[in-house]
Amino acid sequence: MDPVIVVGAGPVGLALALALAGAGVPSVVLDEGPGKEEPRPARTVVLHADTAAMVHRLGCTTLRDEGAHFAAWRTTRRGRDTRRTTFEDTTAPLHLPQHALTRGLRDAAAAHPLVQLVTDTHLDALEQDPHGVTAHTGGVATTWWRGSHLVGCDGARSTVRKLLGIRFPGRTAVERYAVAALRTELPWPGEALLHRGRSPKSAEVTARPLPDGVWRLDWLLPPRGDLVTPDALIGLIRDTLAGWCEGSTPPYDLIDTGVHTLHHRLARRWRDGRAFLAGDAAHLLGALGTQGVEEGLRDAENLAWRLALAWHHGASEALLDGYEGERRTAVAARLRAADQVMPVLRGTGGLRTYVPGAGRSHETLLTDGHLGRGPLGAPPAYAPPVAVREVPTDTEPGGQAANVPVTAPDGSTVPLRDLLGRGRLLVLLVAPGTGVWERRHWMGAGLMPRLAAAVDALPVRAELLVADGYPGAAAHTVLLLRPDGHLAATFAGVRPEELYQAADAVRAGAPESAATGRAPLALPEASATPHQ
């Protein structure tokens, strides 16, 4: 079988390649650059619990070494604290430089035998047929590449999107920020800050900590203001620090600066036959605290398990269409919420009733965007294709499952999120008391033999897990989870026929290979090479 061709070696492209590799699918990553990241401390990303867990699972070690968790989020208005939100270790947002995230993913990809990185090469043509995609590259590797599918993760100026003729409408320069990374001491070590003042210079400033006493500061700029000169930026830094430190500007070391202009755009289509778009190639967003890189990582996770199922066993068109249906809908809702809330927050009018909760304080709305909550930032819940929801739990149907400790068939107990991303469904039985008994005592007792047989009979690969408890779930509840951890269905006890139907609905019906009698595809022994 041919590999999946991934165009672009930023965080999204590398994450997609690693997610595919975790499910046993080889990929070729085409990188226009030399394979090294230019350090830019003022260009950072914030990862919330779901995306941080995904990146950690992919083998990125820089989260631990170069990221900083927020101890708290502090909101101030005209110099007075209005709100302070603290976090547990498992829920604290993680802040790190984007180049560190990319380097960590690249190192993990370079070490994986199923990922082939090709640097200093650019895509200039692609062709599709019923069996795969052929891509031509120039640069160091001037050749044709053959793949089962192709994914454009090549940024806002995506060559893949242009070759596919997909429009990319939207709004330009939605917001502008002056950005600085500096080393200094602030009165709230380790805590992030959203400050809103009365003067134009302090209209809105955020400060987010990084390791080693480094901070990223962002100043909201007027939409059509003057260029930010070095002297003007120094003035912003001094005035802001003095305002936070009782009138005296503390010593600081300026490390990096920039002006960050945010655009809102959404590609008309995210799929064209065997070619897909992800990340900035598919969408641009980021106003009001939302995180474009994080949404791109969610694209990669959503697409990877679908492509893995297609690669190993074949997939229905509906399953592959589901990527665009879910992710484009989620990002469109995020953009729509920002467009409706922005006039309220920026004082240019607007109807608050359009967005749930838009009548709350400005600080609360902005905080939601920064902390991954509410319509501006909450992780998406996808409409599950299964109608069986007999047993209520604290997880919304289609939402991300709680990260509870689970016991796998081999007897190991790990957080649930550690077992995601392997291209298989998860069937979780809530069985209080199993945590204090050895596995050999309960694997052959109660519901387990019948449930294990039902899992073995499912139409796609699945893994049976046991949890001592699950938020809001009664004993003997069975949860069916997609490979990306979203809840598809719940059952009261073992229901083999309905469990089978639910699993079949998750894969969106039988693949075309089953209809034509083609045998499922086996994992190859060797990685892919270019076709000359």
Structural write-up:
This protein is of the alpha+beta class. It contains 14 helices and 26 strands. It has helices at 11-22, 49-57, 62-66, 98-110, 159-163, 230-244, 292-313, 317-345, 362-371, 374-377, 439-442, 448-456, 496-506, 512-516; strands at residues 4-7, 27-30, 44-47, 68-69, 72-77, 80-86, 94-97, 115-118, 121-129, 132-139, 143-147, 149-152, 170-184, 191-196, 205-209, 214-221, 252-266, 271-272, 275-277, 283-284, 405-407, 413-415, 425-430, 462-467, 477-481, 487-492. It has an eight-stranded mixed sheet with strand order 6-5-14-15-16-13-17-20, with helices on both faces. Strands 8-2-1-12-19-18 form a six-stranded mixed sheet. A hairpin with a 5-residue loop joins strand 25 and strand 26 (487-492). Helix 1 (11-22) packs parallel to helix 7, helix 7 (292-313) packs antiparallel against helix 8 and helix 12 runs parallel beside helix 13 (496-506). The longest helix is centred in the middle third of the chain and has 29 residues, at 317-345. The protein is globular, with a radius of gyration of 24 Å. The model is unreliable at 514-532 (pLDDT under 50).
Radius of gyration: 24 Å
The DSSP helix count reads: 14
Number of beta-strand segments = 26
**Residues in β-strands, percent:** 25-35%
Shape: globular
The profile of the biggest β sheet is: 8 strands, mixed
Poorly predicted runs of 5 or more residues: 514-532
Cα distance spanning the termini: 17 Å
Q: Please give the share of residues in helix.
A: 25-40%
Main β-sheet, spatial strand arrangement: 6-5-14-15-16-13-17-20
What oligomeric state is this?
A: single chain
Specify the structural class: alpha+beta
